[in-house]
């Protein structure tokens, strides 16, 4: 886990449980068990569609 991933986790920590899993060179971000986005390098991409 890198520094940016920890920053993302800290930003969402008040909303609830965030899980960040390594996947194919990047990371997937889950909230309450549902995929909400991904991290590529130092960029966070959030889904705009309902999960």
Total domains, how many? Answer: 1
β-strand amount: over 45%
In total, the number of strands is 4
Helix coverage percent of residues? 10-25%
Mean pLDDT: 91
Q: What radius of gyration results from the CA coordinates? A: 10 Å
Q: What spatial order of strands do you see in the largest sheet? A: 1-2-3-4
Low-confidence stretches: none
- Shape verdict: globular
Ends distance: 25 Å
Count of DSSP H/I helices: 1
Going by helix content, strand content and strand pairing, the class is alpha+beta
* Biggest sheet details: 4 strands, antiparallel
SSE order: HEEEE
Descriptive account of the structure:
- A hairpin with a 2-residue loop joins β3 and β4 (43-46).
- The mean pLDDT is 91.
- The chain has 1 helix and 4 strands.
- It has one helix at residues 3-12, and strands at residues 18-23, 26-31, 34-40, 43-46.
- It is α+β, with helices and mostly antiparallel strands and 51 residues long.
- A 4-stranded antiparallel sheet has the order 1-2-3-4, with helices on one face.
- The chain has one domain.
- It is globular.
